[in-house]
Give the backbone structure.
Amino acid sequence: MTATPLTVEELREELGLTPLDDGAPSHGALARLLRLAIARWSPTSRSELYRWLGDLVTLAELDWPEQVKPRVEETLDQLIRLGDVEAVSIGERTDDPDDDNPDEGDDPALSRPLRRGLNLLATPPRVVRLGDRLLLCGGAEMNDAQLDAATLPPEPGLAGVLRWFTPDAPALRGLPQVSAEEWLGYPDHRRIMDRRAPRADEDPKGGSEPVKLDLGALWAQLQREVQAQAPHEVSGELRVIVGRPGDFFGSAKQGDGRWRPLTKAVPAGVYCGARRAPAGANKERWRPVLIELLDDRRARILDLYDWDELAWAQLSRGVATGAPEQVRLREGVIVADVSLPHQLQRLMALGVREGWRSRPPPECLEAILTSLKDRGGLTVVSQ
């Protein structure tokens, strides 16, 4: 018996690579292929995944480099952001340009998730309860036919990666269920405190009482560190975040919104900010810093590890000073008025995204807002 070769259309249908109007398959279809590959070959790398998927796409006569690969990159970033896939370091780090693109932090609404390693692992399946919705997370292989029958219709775009179920879905019986806080994991602001002071649970003055590890405590720790730095002359190469929570935030690179150059109009104090990259580096890049402005001529500067630490520092400053940053709620859409760190972007990723806006399913809206308030110290302003 001779096997009949598949036509291009049949191959696309079999692999789930039927293109949309823009010439690329949906994020949801690509997520399924990525989960399958990572579960079977874990640990693997981005470059290995791209080679495999690139071959499939070429067989399906789709444009890999121009149309499909960018969507695959977005989809894989979303899987890492949601916790379906974990990036870890196994053995010695090797250079792999496909795996390590720097995040400038200039588009914090959709910045790439933190790269804590080059090896990609599938996480075990688990169910996150968010209000009256269940979210299936994890990259391990499961019974796709059973899941498809129970999965709620996908949202468009990146939100199509999410697998939502009703609370009584039989396909999820027997899987471990976790809360939103457990799904988010160890608070990243505490991770920052641990990194800067490994014994952050002890009193730096030698007392026996433990130091508080709430969000506001991060700002106190960073203030101590910047105040230990030597003063520098103020220059136009420094910008700080000022203004009121809720004002247009802007970006360090553009110097707009709440980002201002250090001038006499900025009163003395400690601010989150950025400095232009030093001579010999890319002059269009800005580096995150903490700045203590002493007067109109002198300032102390503390370099921060990355833009994620800056985002946490700004949230912590708001809590510590009694002027918390905010998000707005407008007709079921969450609008971020400040750059959110990656851990909180995971919450925003639960909805249909458009820039700094997210429209989550109505059934889990309240649970998401509660986590933004509890984890990020944010105020929710209803409009």
Remarks:
- The chain has four domains: 8-122, 126-184, 188-321, 326-382.
- The CA atoms of residues 84 and 137 lie 5 Å apart.
- Residues 64-82 form the longest helix (19 residues).
- The first strand starts at residue 85 and ends at 88.
